[in-house]
Every structure is written in structure tokens, then in C-alpha cells.
Design goal:
The complex is a heterodimer of chains A (259) and B (346).
Chain A (H helix, E strand, L loop, with lengths): L8 E10 L2 E11 L4 E5 L6 H8 L7 E6 L2 E2 L8 H4 L1 E3 L12 H8 L8 H5 L3 H20 L15 H13 L5 E5 L7 H16 L4 E5 L3 H7 L2 E6 L2 E6 L1 H6 L1 H8 L4
Parallel strand pairs in A: 3-8, 3-9, 6-7, 7-8
Antiparallel strand pairs in A: 1-2, 1-4, 4-5, 9-10
Helix pairs in contact in A: 3-5, 3-6, 5-6
Chain B lengths: L10 H14 L12 H25 L9 H19 L3 H23 L4 H20 L4 H4 L5 E2 L13 H24 L2 H11 L1 H6 L4 H27 L1 E2 L6 H14 L4 H28 L8 H15 L3 H22 L1
Antiparallel strand pairs in B: 1-2
Helix pairs in contact in B: 2-7, 2-10, 2-11, 2-12, 3-4, 3-5, 3-10, 4-10, 7-10, 8-10, 11-12, 11-14, 12-13, 12-14
The chains are: A alpha/beta (259), B mainly alpha (346).
Amino acid sequence: MTEQATPLLSVRGVTVRFGGVVALDDVTFDVMPGQIAGLIGPNGAGKTTLFNCLSRLYQPSRGEILFEGQSILSVPRHRIPMIGIGRTFQNVALFDRLTVLENVMVGRHSRTSAGFVENALRLPSVGREEAAVRDKAMDLIEFMNLSAFTHRVAAGLPFPIRKRVELARALAAEPKLLLLDEPAAGLNHDEVHTLEGQIRRVRDVQGVTVLLVEHHMSLVMSVSDKVVVVNFGRKIADGRPEEVRQNPDVIRAYLGTAA
Amino acid sequence: MTTSWAMKRGVGVTSILFWIVLALLPLIGFVSESSSFDYYMFMGQSMLIYAIAVLGLNLLIGFNGQISLGHSAFFALGAYTAAILMNFGGWPYWATLPIAAVVCFAAGLLFGFPALKLEGHYLALATFTLAIAVPQLLKYKAIAGWTGGVGGVLLDKPDPPEWTRLSPDQWLYYVCLAAAILLFWVVFNLLRSRNGRALMAVRDHSMAASTMGIDLARYKTIAFGISAGITGVAGGLSAITVAYVAPDSFTLQLSISFLVGLVVGGIASLPGCLVGGVFIVLVQNSAQSISDWMKATFALRYDVPAWAIYGVLLLLLMYFLPAGIAGGFAQARTWWTMRGRRGRQQ
């Protein structure tokens, strides 16, 4: 290892139990700043459970999660975007009755501060903040090639568009770490290719570290700097994509045959 | 529907024109010979008051996704706050309205905390208890010295300032209109702000909203507070304009009236609140007129039940305008512009 010592994200011995079921068992791994990390494993392996711990929807029964060296386990859920963690959801969780622009603007909530009274009276400071939020949202809408849909209500949009809206919304908070839960699910071959470029640009242009859960093997293997493999709640491999691909445990437990 | 309401261009101009028209209506009184003009003005006051109450309820139901069957209780609280301040404190009527807003905001906030644990049908039941308990609580003997018990409190109808040369009912119409304009403006501002977007985000997907940094507990309780505060102002205005408060004016049926006005006007629609206010006053009255008309025209032996006519009207509206009257207008406008565009392309 070189001297870039502190990981951006450090998962230490995280264990999650639901009643008698152990969803995650002593999982440990690091994500370095600027990395694109892939988290893979068969269905039910515990990947989304881990994401839900990172965004504080679940509380681990044991273990520690450090972000920039600080524990996040006592941070309330709604403060997670303020410390720099953003996410998307497996089933795409948009605000369906708001427009694309409004959705992305909600993404900026954690970076703005105007209160109820200021907003109710539309004080001048509010106008400036609103304009800045709108500009930022418009930039991201362009960045994600969504300009044609800016004023459309989210509900009726095609699935691949909805996924891009969700990504733009997550970026609006300017996260340091972006958690993507199955970004390629439901996309066709071309769309996955576009997505790959977008994930790279998010890292290279926006400087965001990415952790993605994904089933789409070729996407994970080509885009990731490192890959963590979990099975039945346990980590079975952790390393560069080509190392993981050769790992006999991974081949046996997950890939079935060498892909 | 391609854009949500807040982003529509032209909303500003149309609504300003609309409010101006509403402000000009009382002036008809100076040329009209009608002896019942003051009665029409009173109906106008009632419509505006119901519109404000529906506005408060819409903020909660339409824009934040929480239900309430208990808004008659906040309406009552606002009315009694105004009445008691005027009657025992000798307060000027207009000064009681901000106090009614604050008292009801606090009450709504307090009720918002238990409401956090409840959703959907359970929240409906919890707020229902509020609506049925409050009329009886107002009759409670220990506080009858303040509330007047079953008999309520009789107030003086305020006089208009002399320079206006308006009748009391014309003047009170303007008081209601001023309150309505102020509150609609405030809600409009809120809804197009980060707080308004957050309220709607909580409605559409609360889990995603919380991962965007929106504190669910804070937003849900504040929504309850603001909603109750606005409906409380409506209650205060009703005490002033009717010049009387009594427990049995604030039953569950009043809550249901608000809900009917809300749904008929249009859920999550600001113009819909005004439509709802008009509907509540007009249709309850016209159901009786239709009943009388049917009896006379068809030479019936017995009265046709007015509430049955009301029910049929409501069913027809729900069937033909499921998005409410304001929603129906919006759809018609979209259809009209699309048709225009298609026409030009050919």
C-alpha cells in the first residue's frame, strides 16, 4: 500500500440479524477515495442490506462503519447526505408526482438551508438560493442527458430514464461517496454501455467515489477498480477484478463456471 | 399532464386577475338594487372561509399525504380563540386572527407527534376522535364560563371603518378576502420552495425523502401545525362573520365538508381549494332548492330528501371529474391546447 492511508469508507466486522436470520456476518472491507468499487454476490447475499446500513435504514447488530474515519452509526438517517453519502435504489425511488427538475432539486435539499418562515414570505435570500439550486439541477439534468424531460412528471417516464433521474438526484447533493444499487438492472445492452460511461464520468468529472451493487458481471468487471464478493452474508473475496475472477471460492459460490 | 402545477407559466398572471375580480365583486352592491345583496356577501364570506379551511387541509392531505378527519376541531379552536379574545379580552376582531393561527399551529404540532406513528386508516381514526371529542369538550361545565357551554358565545358584528362607506357584510367580505389572499400567497410560496418540495417528496416516497436529507418527523409535524394554523384562521373568521360560536357548529360533519370540498375542488390543487369553498356553500344550499323545485315541478306529495340529491350530485362529480373540478379544468385546457397544436400542424 502507498501512503494514501485513510479509506473513504471502512466497513468493519458488520453483522446484521433479522430475528434468527443472519443477513450479514462479520463483513469487512475498505473503499479508497476516488475508487469505483463493486459489491457482488448472488441474490439474498446481503448486498442491499449492507447499503441500507450505509444509509442508516438498518442498524447493524455488531461492527462499525467509518466514513472519513468517523463512525456513522450514531448519525441520524437524514444527516447522511450532509456528511457526503448519496444513493440510488434498486427499484428506483423517485417522487412520482414531481417533475424531473423538482426531483433533482429535492436532491439538493441537504445542501440548502432556507427555513419555513423565509420561504413562506419569499424573502430575497430565498430567491438567490432557489436560483442556485435550479442552476445546479439543470446542469445535472444536462450531464445525465435528460434535458428533454426536464418538466415532465416522473411517474410516466420509461424505466431507463427514471434511473438516470435518480442518479442526477443523488449527484445533486454533491456526495463524496455514491452508492448505486443495481444501476444496470432493467437496462438493455446499449443502455448499460452508456451507464458505464456515466459512472466513469461521475468519478472522473465530479470526483465522486462509487460503490455499486450489481449483477451485471461485465459492467462490474470493466468499471470497478476493486470488487468485493459476498455470499450468504459473508465476504468471500476482495480484490482487483481479475484477481476476484480467478478466485476459486468465487467461481464455486457465485459464478458457477469461470466467466 | 406534463408539468406539475408549480412550474406552469402564466399561473401568476391568471391568479392575480382572478383575485382582482373577487375584490371587485362587493362594488356591485353600490349599483345593485337587490335587497339580498348583503346575504350574497355573507355567502361570499362563507365561501372564502371554507376555501381557507380547505387550503389548510390540502396542505396536509394533498401535498404531504397525511389524512385528517379532525380539522373541524382546529376550526373550532380558531373560532373559540377569536370569540374568547373578543368577548373577554376586548380585543379588536382582526387582532384575534394571528392568535388563532398560533394557537392552532401549536395544537396541530402537538397532534402531529402521535400522528407520526400512524398512517392511512389509522391516522384517519385518530383524527376522527378529535372531531367527535371537541364539540363535547366545548360544552364541558368547568370551562363553560369561557366557552358559554351549550349556548356558545354571542359576539358583536364589527363595524367597517367609516371612510370605506361599506356595509358590514361588504367589509367583512374584504376581511375574508385579505386573509385568503395572504394565506394562499404564503402556501404558494411554501410549495415552490425547498420546504414545499420536501413536503411533496415525503408524500411521494418517504424513505427516499429521508435519504435526501429530509427529516420526516420534522416535516410531518410541521405540516400538521401549518395545516391546523390555516384552518384555525378560517375558524376565527367564521366566528367574526357569523358573530356567534356554538359547539354544535363544529361537528364531524364539518370535517367531512372540508374533505368533500377538497376532493371536489381537486387534491393538491390551489385553485381547487377555492372551488371547494364555493362548492361547500353553494351545493349544500342548492340541494335544498333542487328538492323544492322537484316537488313543485313534478307535483310530488312529499319533499325529496336534500341530502340524497347532494349525494347524487357528489357521485356524478366523482364519476365525471375524478381529478376534481380544478383538475377537470386543467385537463380540458391541456386537451384544448393539444387540439390547437394539432390543428396548426395540419
